[in-house]
Design a protein that fits this description.
about 170 residues; about 0% strand
């Protein structure tokens, strides 16, 4: 029965618990799709609500919240340095695969504020990453495959520091 799940997601959204709301909606859509109920009214409404929740996540700062990123600046330097080292041994196709997998994952919102929340990539089996690590990995990937691309992430300061450390270590 999709209605209770839709109600739960709606309540979570109203409470400002957007990531949790998105997770419930994604689960609802997965279940209704698998059971042939994709046209159920609650599933149709869930698609609309999910898009709205994703938009709200982006509007609340997402990866562009300058205060939070400034607080996380030291960690970002190390995550970006790790990304530079990781990508140094990969070709452009492999970097692109990882970068676009993270971008796709980020469409539903990455929780970059919580180090406890972990994500897994099929392109990096056996590893788990925080949202902040993935954001830095994606930023470094775009810097390698499309350096002029505006990622919408304010990581330029830690990027320059990580790049200087990386080049000094060569």
């Amino acid at each position: 029965m999709p209605e209770p799940q839709f109600g739960k997601a709606l309540l979570l959204q109203k409470q400002g618990r957007l990531l949790e709301s998105a997770e419930v909606l994604e689960g609802l859509l997965k279940i209704t799709s698998a059971s042939g109920m994709a046209n159920h009214p609650a599933a149709v409404q869930a698609k609309t609500l999910l898009q709205s929740v994703r938009d709200q996540i982006r509007e609340q700062g997402g990866p562009t919240n300058p205060e939070l990123l400034q607080e996380k600046h030291p960690a970002a330097v190390w995550y970006l340095l790790d990304a530079l080292k990781r990508f140094d041994s990969l070709d452009s196709r492999q970097v692109m695969e990882i970068t676009f997998e993270i971008a796709k994952l980020g469409e539903s919102g990455l929780d970059y504020a919580s180090p406890e929340k972990k994500y897994h990539l099929t392109s990096c089996p056996g590893e788990s990453f925080s949202g902040h690590q993935l954001m830095c990995l994606m930023f470094a990937g775009f810097k390698r495959i499309a350096p002029d691309q505006d990622t919408g992430m304010d990581l330029n300061e830690p990027w320059i520091t990580a790049l200087e450390l990386f080049n000094a270590g060569k």
